[in-house]
Amino acid sequence: MRCTVLTVGTEILFGSIVNTNSVYISQQLQELGIDVMYHMSVGDNPARLKEMLAHIYTDCDMIITTGGLGPTQDDLTKEMICEYFGERNVPFPEEMAKLEALFAKSERKMTENNRKQAFLPEHAVVLPNANGTAPGFWLEKDGKLIISLPGPPSEMKPMFDNEVKPRLLARQDSVLWSRNIMTYDIGESALETELLEFIDGQTDPTLATYAGTFQCKLRISSKRKTLEEARAAVDAMTEKVVKKIPDNIYSVEGEDIAQVVFKMLKERGLKLSSCESCTGGMFAAAVTDISGASEVFDRSLVTYSEKAKMEELGVSPATLERYSAVSSQTALEMAEGLRRASGSDVCVSVTGYAGPLGGTEEDPVGTFYVGLWYDGKCAAKRFTTRRPTRERVRKNAVLQMFLQIYKTLK
Amino acid sequence: MRCTVLTVGTEILFGSIVNTNSVYISQQLQELGIDVMYHMSVGDNPARLKEMLAHIYTDCDMIITTGGLGPTQDDLTKEMICEYFGERNVPFPEEMAKLEALFAKSERKMTENNRKQAFLPEHAVVLPNANGTAPGFWLEKDGKLIISLPGPPSEMKPMFDNEVKPRLLARQDSVLWSRNIMTYDIGESALETELLEFIDGQTDPTLATYAGTFQCKLRISSKRKTLEEARAAVDAMTEKVVKKIPDNIYSVEGEDIAQVVFKMLKERGLKLSSCESCTGGMFAAAVTDISGASEVFDRSLVTYSEKAKMEELGVSPATLERYSAVSSQTALEMAEGLRRASGSDVCVSVTGYAGPLGGTEEDPVGTFYVGLWYDGKCAAKRFTTRRPTRERVRKNAVLQMFLQIYKTLK
Questions:
Q1: pLDDT score, position A361
Q2: Closest approach of chain A CAs to the CA of B15, in angstroms?
Q3: Interface residue of A29, A39, A287, A344 to substitute, partner B, most B CBs within 10 Å
Q4: Could you give the domains of chain A?
Q5: Which of A27, A300, A326, A344 to mutate to test the interface with B (most CBs of B within 10 A)?
Q6: pTM
Q7: Is the pLDDT of residue B175 over 80?
Q8: What is the ipTM of this complex?
Q9: Does B297 touch chain A (CB under 8 A)?
């Protein structure tokens, strides 16, 4: 199948919103093995909308549109599809009843415009909208497939997942199953080299690598007749991959490192505290981003100044003087001081040069030290950062703090 | 002028990257008063690329392309533009010399492919690339304007700003000047209502509102014969706006609230510390995101547990028992305790229900209290959050912490 993704809305052409709908739909279609030939965006303009449809019509056998299904005069996607494909735009009684019930409940007055949302191309299948008032639709006509979805991502994405994807899979007579393998301490090209025997010439399951910031994701997908077969194929390949790079995987369930560490701590009933200098609270913010963090997380002492490091953590003036605030010794004393202050089972510390100013010849901007107290032992480790912008150094430091905990508890 | 933005690259169609180039270019063109009619994306495919050019050619008088200017066989944008517009693709000696010098310096071998980057349409004007090896170009042909830019945003954006924008402005015989007014405590529709007299029927300067998360930005732009005239027009309108809503503006220079507060503190030589519960370090992370934060920021005590609140800040068990950890009283005691611990001039605290679990009947999820100690006085204030997802509550709390400091120091 050759598909075009047509996103409708003047706000896209103004650059007022980022077109994430095209990204989401394209990712999903790629997994389904459907080729995306074009992304197109037009404003709420009838002539240009029809022009685009005409173009797509000659070149693709499938169109997915988002946007322009709302109640206002501006919303024209449905009307233009009807005109182009010679469909009548007719009221769907069930949708009208739903809409009327909704308005009755909210005590808002239902206008003629609102009724427009329950009109659909006469041969269309309704795609219900669980998160908004505009239903989508699925229309097969003249050998073409037209799928129309609402514009807001919060409505479009669940509609795609729950209504569109199963129908596309049903047409394909196959089921897709994927798994995200989260790796660490290995770059994208090294990852590809390690797994070459599984990637090269492999048609199912397929392996694809995605480079993130300082870490890579590996996606294993299989498309088979049944879900059981697809799952079994993905699981068998996952086992091979884990065997090949056992020390570079922290999750085979697509969880990020903060979640993995949170679960480890929770399962073992361990309390965590942190003390942060260059990350300035980002580590704590990442931990507390998880709902339920209070079950494992006690405190973070963001000791940005040397004064705070001495007062809150008891780092000795002599250490700061002799080794500086960015040193293995300071990271160790921070972690030890945190243990004394909090009594937490796992105490992690970080100090470094986030830049753009600062740094020394031996420890340039991008260098940081992570200290970790656990089970009576305390150790510190030095890290550097490639292309050390302030943002990248801080992100890398947060990642390495989590990884140090993960490696120590593993 | 009617323009199409054509972004070239298979990675766009795969959904592997978000198409921020289209957003950036569209925003810039809108300011210049150039209408964007379409966004289109195609892969690195010669036939479809030419098809798109043919379509645009009939409908627009201007095309901006990004991507496909690199050295590999895949990179075809230049070649297809030449074919379509009947231009010869010829070596530009100056560009070739630059390229050769670059390779000589880096000691990498220059291949025939690399030389391809110094070939351009014979009638093109070179747009130098200060951040990469592929030059862009500006071509006027058959009454159409074609502008080709490289794909990486780090190369494309400066090239647009420094090479394309001035040339487009020169054609327009006018200069654009804009100012971003940052507002607070006012929603987008209230803002529009307040400023209606300036917005309605106003052709220059123009006022546009942009809704962000819990705050709105107002952009005032003027396009005049000279920069002085445009600046004067924007400044005169800015004065009127400030007079109209004096208590809803924290910056007329487009700075965010963290920067504004940072500068206030720095100018007055004041030290800031924070203690955070529901924001879990996000406030400190926002402050320390600013390079040079150490000049004003001392520490943040992220006291997530009740134990930490008592141990680090001396919040009394009786207060936690009687009023709970999320209360005006706890926020006050946190700020007072932080003052005792840090001695900082400004001590801000926050405690709240970020959700999704927790909250009480009187203080549902989304409620938080901000405490502030300054100049011997301590006060706490209650806030609520509309549509309180965990992320929105925490963002709102960080914003209100900054605003409380701003309002107190103003």
A1: 94
A2: 4
A3: A39
A4: 2-172 (3.40.980.10), 175-251 (3.30.70.2860), 257-409 (3.90.950.20)
A5: A300
A6: 0.80
A7: no
A8: 0.79
A9: yes
**Residue A344 banded pLDDT, cuts 50, 70, 90:** very high
CA distance A235 to chain B (A): 25
**Range B298-321 average pLDDT:** 97
Instruction: Please indicate if any CB of chain B lies within 8 Å of the CB of A297.
Output: yes
* A390 CA: distance to closest CA in chain B (Å): 8
Say whether B304 and A312 touch across the interface (CB within 8 A). no
Nearest to B30 among A15, A291, A342 (CB): A15
Mean pLDDT lowest among A302-306, B5-9, B71-75, B381-385: B71-75
Residues of A in contact with B16 (CB under 8 A): 27, 210
Is the confidence at residue B211, as pLDDT, over 80?
Answer: no
Q: Which of B3, B13, B64, B295 to mutate to test the interface with A (most CBs of A within 10 A)?
A: B13
Distance CA B187, CA B383 (A): 16
Q: Count the Cβ atoms, other than its own, within 10 Å of residue A200.
A: 9
Question: Is the confidence at residue A106, as pLDDT, over 80?
Answer: no
- Inter-chain residue contact A15 with B37, CB threshold 8 Å: no
| CB contacts, 8 Å: A26 with chain B | 12-15
- Shortest CA gap B49–chain A (Å): 10
- Give me the residue from B23, B38, B341 closest to A15, CB to CB: B23
Q: Is the pLDDT of residue A30 over 80?
A: yes
